[in-house]
Write a structure and sequence with these properties.
Structural class: alpha/beta
Number of strands: 15
Largest sheet: 7 strands, mixed
Distance between the termini: 51 Å
Number of domains: 2
CATH class of the largest domain: Alpha Beta
Radius of gyration: 22 Å
CATH superfamily of the largest domain: tm_1862 like domain
Strand order of the largest sheet: 2-1-3-4-5-6-7
Length: about 450
């Protein structure tokens, strides 16, 4: 009886952050139920060659990917699997598959699409296959059933405390150290963000609900993993780590009391950090926080309103920089350029404010990118009226990666003016002592990709 599930993560540009947390999370319930699991990460593994070996006795193949260039890798792996063993079901999951399940299923590259939270769904799929049944009725999945598509009911989001800790035992941290020179752990202590920024896909899945581990579990799991695997750094992948400020401070205090030493980073919004006292931010630094990423996006009040970032205030950007500098923590302010309605004067105002922040607080660096219209975001109807064309196929979305430009209003002379402004801004606001430090944001943490500092 076959009982092996092979989980694949296509390769991507840039150095890997660490083992793919999404696949390790799926692996845990499978392992608890007696399945064998093989996790292959294209960032460090020769996945094509490994798949040729692993597929021989596999029950199914699972491939997780994000919108953008990773799609090409997922398609190539699917084609290879089909050529090797046409009888093995292929399961697609991850953000893109969840956002566009119908289109992804119609591509023909997968037999089953897992939508949203996948731990229960992949387990039920594997159980059906182990019993010799094709899984046509699993909640939270879309399936090609003969000549028709079957879109099963949604699977309600579940408290993450109901799931076992991701299967970090399957991760080869030595391989990541050889590739990057670092032993780094990606870890999610929570899911969800209470805000509803119009450009963000987060609310599509988590519906603005904060779904978190308790302090005790975070401290115990992280410190155990750091000690067990001799890790140097932990990157929290939380959408917005300090949603519960008291919890965030208690986690930092727990790390200090554990006496297990490591660096850690997280993503936040400036209003939440500003709810912390100076002493509490210094406590973060004492616990090992070396870097924080903030979705400041713009310093134009008009643009922030269009983004639905009512929580984002200009004065709190300054205050975030001040508190962080006092604590000795580096911060990155992420900027979105070319948002619908943004004018040159809005950009000039953003660059003016950010330059003023940098002059006062050189612990700040910047990560600018052109607005990327990801599937599922709430402003797609508006984007279509402005001439943005959403791809009509899975493979078409491969070109919609971070840093690409598909905005009709940002072309020609308008784009050239933006490039000139941005080049001048970056030249004036680069700190030599920060130049070698990588920029880490929520989406780059998810993909392992550092953000670009140029616009193409």
């Amino acid at each position: 009886m076959k009982d092996k599930v092979v989980l694949l993560y296509p390769g991507y540009e840039g150095p890997p952050l660490g083992p793919p947390l999404s696949l390790l999370s799926l692996a845990s319930p499978l392992l608890e139920d007696g399945f064998q699991v093989r996790v292959l990460d294209g960032a460090v593994d020769p996945v094509e060659e490994a798949l040729k070996t692993e597929i021989a006795d596999s029950l199914c193949i699972g491939i997780s990917f994000l919108t953008g260039p990773m799609i090409r890798g997922a398609v190539a792996l699917s084609r290879l699997a089909r050529s090797l063993r046409p009888d093995v079901p292929i399961v697609f999951g991850g953000w893109h598959s969840s956002l566009l399940p119908e289109e992804t299923l119609r591509s023909g590259f997968a037999d089953i699409i897992v939508r949203g939270q996948g731990e229960r769904s992949i387990l039920e799929i594997a159980r059906h296959l182990r019993e010799g049944k094709f899984p046509t009725t699993v909640a939270g999945t879309s399936v090609q059933g003969g000549m028709e598509e079957i879109h099963n009911p949604e699977r309600p989001a579940e408290n993450i405390n109901n799931f076992p800790t991701p299967a970090f035992s399957l991760a080869d941290f030595d391989a990541y150290e050889r590739r990057t020179g670092m032993r780094k752990l990606p870890f999610a202590s929570s899911l969800g963000c209470p805000y509803a920024c119009h450009y963000c896909t987060d609310q599509v899945f988590y519906e603005r609900r904060f779904n978190a581990y308790p302090v005790s579990r975070v401290v115990a799991d992280v410190t155990d993993l750091v000690a067990r695997h001799r890790l140097q750094s932990v990157a929290l992948l939380d959408s917005n780590f300090p949603v519960n400020v008291k919890r965030a401070v208690e986690i930092a205090r727990g790390f200090i009391e554990s006496k297990v030493r490591f660096d850690w980073t997280f993503q936040a919004s400036t209003d939440l950090l500003c709810r912390m006292s100076d002493d509490e931010v210094c406590l973060l630094a004492q616990s090992g926080v070396t870097h924080m990423g903030f979705g400041t996006e713009s310093a134009s009040e008009r643009v922030l309103e269009w983004m639905n970032k009512k929580h984002q205030r200009i004065d709190e950007m300054f205050e975030t920089a001040r508190k962080s500098e006092k604590a000795g923590i580096r911060v990155t302010f992420n900027l979105i350029l070319g948002y619908p309605g943004e004018t040159e004067s809005d950009r000039i105002e953003t660059f003016r404010v950010m330059s003023e922040i940098f002059r006062k607080y050189p612990n700040v660096s910047f990560s600018p990118n052109i607005f990327t219209p990801y599937p599922g975001i709430s402003i797609w109807p508006q984007l279509r009226t402005l001439g943005v064309k959403d791809p009509q196929s899975l493979e078409g979305w491969a070109d919609m990666g971070l840093g690409s430009n598909h905005l009709p209003w940002l072309q020609g002379e308008e784009l050239r003016k933006l490039k000139r402004l941005l080049k001048e801004f970056l030249l004036q606001n680069r700190s030599p002592r920060l130049a070698s430090n990588p920029v880490v944001t929520r989406r780059s943490l998810l993909t392992g990709q550092g953000l670009r500092s140029d616009v193409s």
